[in-house]
């Protein structure tokens, strides 16, 4: 009888294997395809290595301390006169953040150099938001150098890398910067509109001699408003001494980074419409994997919770940091050490302060 049972059992095995091949395996493949991004980010510490670490330059500052003393604390000396400073940004639609930035930096900036395009990085036609809102920036009228970049509109069925279109605009900014009157030895700030150096950072670097030729700025990173501090991971903003070979970049240029140098407020918009615009316009628009991601009520809920708009895991290189940053960003009730113009005009910019998460639709 034993051999008979073995033969019956052996006949049942192919059915299990067939079930696995026809049902279970396709389900797993479909699941992997649907959640490929989550899986990739979850195991990033296994397949990706972090870039080489920055060398942090200590940053000394306190109110009513002389500039000579601050320069000496950094190992530098005081100049007889300040360097000229050119603030160069490529602009999309961040009007509120731009107003805060320029009001905050206005006393220290020689020229505000701003380039905007009639298309997004994804090749979608867009209005010239700055040009049609110049009245908001009349206070800086004499300092503004504005340029328009004629972008390419992508046609249906074709694909162009948004990073390629972004690179073209940054190359155009190099030309606009040179036409703005900048000279060798002047300082140039290279950053996005929402990467705001603190005024005392700019003042320090314009008044001190022997500063590095180029230095990145470590900015405190916020999401949606100053109610949701993420970390100090923002590093792409730089200040450098302009020279014959200087080109406008938004990438790593040196190993030096000046600690605690300002604020980076990502997706800090007043209107839900502006969130949707950026989600479809910037270089990472491929993160919008479903049309439902652009639903206003969904976006509003995520803003107030401090959750990710793209339903993504944190981009981290260690499992420890990955686990640490999973879930919503913790709320903060602090509005200390923020841009002075923001605090002075708190009623106007309530949506950027603790408790102001509700947004208007348009």
TrEMBL record:
GO biological process: N-acetylglucosamine metabolic process
Pfam families cross-referenced by the UniProt entry: Glyco_transf_17 (PF04724)
Cellular compartments per GO CC: membrane
Keyword Cytoplasm among record annotations: no
Recorded GO MF terms: beta-1,4-mannosylglycoprotein 4-beta-N-acetylglucosaminyltransferase activity
Sequence intervals crossing the membrane: 13-34
Keyword annotations: Membrane, Transmembrane, Transmembrane helix
PANTHER family per record: BETA-1,4-MANNOSYL-GLYCOPROTEIN BETA-1,4-N-ACETYLGLUCOSAMINYL-TRANSFERASE, BETA-1,4-N-ACETYLGLUCOSAMINYLTRANSFERASE FAMILY PROTEIN
Protein name: Beta-1,4-mannosyl-glycoprotein 4-beta-N-acetylglucosaminyltransferase-like
């Amino acid at each position: 009888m034993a051999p008979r049972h073995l033969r019956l059992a052996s006949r049942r095995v192919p059915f299990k294997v067939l079930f696995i091949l026809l049902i279970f395996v396709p389900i797993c493949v479909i699941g992997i395809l649907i959640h490929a991004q989550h899986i990739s980010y979850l195991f990033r510490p296994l397949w990706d290595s972090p870039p080489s670490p920055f060398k942090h330059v200590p940053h000394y500052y306190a109110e009513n301390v002389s500039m000579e003393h601050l320069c000496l604390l950094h190992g530098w000396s005081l100049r007889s006169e300040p360097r000229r400073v050119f603030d160069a940004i490529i602009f999309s639609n961040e009007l509120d953040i731009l107003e805060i930035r320029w009001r905050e930096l206005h006393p220290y900036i020689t020229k505000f150099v701003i380039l905007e395009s009639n298309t997004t990085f994804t090749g979608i036609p867009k209005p010239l938001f700055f040009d049609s809102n110049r009245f908001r920036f009349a206070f800086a009228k004499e300092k503004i150098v504005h340029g328009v970049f004629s972008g390419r509109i992508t046609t249906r069925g074709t694909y162009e890398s948004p990073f390629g279109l972004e690179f073209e605009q940054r190359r155009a900014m190099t030309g606009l910067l040179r036409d703005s009157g900048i000279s060798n030895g002047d300082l140039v700030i290279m950053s996005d509109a929402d990467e705001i150096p603190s005024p005392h950072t700019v003042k320090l670097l314009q008044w001190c001699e022997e500063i590095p030729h180029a230095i990145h700025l470590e900015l405190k990173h916020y999401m949606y408003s100053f109610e949701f501090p993420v970390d100090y991971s923002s590093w792409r903003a730089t200040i450098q001494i302009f020279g014959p070979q200087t080109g406008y970049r938004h990438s790593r240029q040196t190993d030096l980074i000046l600690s605690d140098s300002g604020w980076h407020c990502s997706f800090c918009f007043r209107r839900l419409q502006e969130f949707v615009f950026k989600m479809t316009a910037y270089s990472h628009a491929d993160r919008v994997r479903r049309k439902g991601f652009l639903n206003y009520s969904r976006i509003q809920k995520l803003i107030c919770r401090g959750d990710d708009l793209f339903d993504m895991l944190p981009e981290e290189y260690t499992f420890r940091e990955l686990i640490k940053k999973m879930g919503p960003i913790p709320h903060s009730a602090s509005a200390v050490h923020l841009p002075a113009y923001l605090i002075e005009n708190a009623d106007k910019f309530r949506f950027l302060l603790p408790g102001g998460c509700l947004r208007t639709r348009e």
